[in-house]
Specification:
alpha/beta; globular; TIM Barrel
């Protein structure tokens, strides 16, 4: 009997006019295949978290990374409920985007309850594009990482474009890398924002080998500086995938913030693109 997943994949094949193998959830070198950052489905998750997770599971996604929302870190579900729903759907809750703020202790406790492996700070806790501020933030990240490690969680940081600005001749992201402890601060590299900033992810893989256990795989429309479907932007995805070992990546999350149509259609396209690799 044909399943909804079969129907969706066959539809993607018909639309693209390509031959697609039924392994779209898998990526060489990334443990357990590809995941998705749920910010991709932010509106849908806010309206119907469980129903949206079911649709994501049906197209073959195996890993989930949450994003802070108006309903909390788990879209109105408790941490245990989120874990149970993902498990029942054959997915694993691996990571979550949070803020490093006054409620961070509670955030860590929730992450422990959810069973997730990583807590990723999604934005600079203090703004200021100076070397001194980034050194201060690095110290705060080291302390947060130590707190998380004691609770069995890995702490990390997700970059944007602005971290690649310079102050006094120093790239601020490099200041952050040079002043954080690799065993306490685990970097999630957003490959799309790296190229928008005019940098090459491969250069960072080489300079900080093995320090990027998580990726956001995001193709970018370079003219508009916004995300797009795989193969339509400026990221050399095959080259990135060929350098997984150098980066140290363990978990790859697809993220797309803007779409040509519905988010689920963009995700099906992206999975089909990855299959052709």
């Amino acid at each position: 009997m044909a399943t909804r997943r079969d129907f969706l994949i066959q539809s993607a094949i018909f639309s693209a006019g390509t031959v697609l193998l039924p392994s779209c959830a898998l990526a060489p070198g990334a443990k357990g295949g590809l995941g998705v950052q749920l910010y991709t489905f932010r509106d849908e998750m806010a309206k119907d978290a469980i129903g949206t997770l079911k649709k994501i599971a049906e197209i073959g996604i195996k890993k989930i990374e949450t994003a802070r929302s108006g309903k909390g870190h788990y879209y109105g579900l408790s941490p245990k409920e989120m874990k149970t729903v993902c498990t029942d759907l054959g997915m694993s809750l691996v990571s979550g985007h949070v803020h490093l703020d006054k409620n961070f202790d509670k955030t860590v406790e929730e992450a422990v309850e959810s069973g997730q492996e990583y807590l990723i700070c999604s934005t600079m806790p203090t703004r200021g594009q100076t070397v001194d501020n980034y050194k201060s933030v690095a110290e705060a990240f080291n302390k947060a990482g130590e707190k998380c490690e004691k609770m069995g969680i890995h702490f990390g940081y997700h970059n944007h474009e602005y971290e690649y600005e310079s102050d006094n001749g120093q790239i601020l992201y490099d200041v952050l890398m040079d002043n954080t402890q690799p065993d306490l601060v685990h970097m999630e590299l957003d490959l799309g924002w790296v190229i928008v900033a005019g940098k090459d992810p491969i250069d960072y893989f080489k300079k900080y080998e093995g320090r990027f256990p998580l990726w956001h795989l995001k193709d970018m429309d370079m003219a508009h500086k916004e995300s797009t479907e795989f193969g339509k932007g400026g990221l050399d995805i095959p080259l990135m995938m060929a350098n997984q070992k150098l980066s140290g990546v363990k978990h790859i999350f697809i993220e797309q913030e803007e779409y040509a149509g519905a988010p689920i259609d963009s995700m099906i396209h992206n999975l089909a693109f990855m299959d052709k690799l």
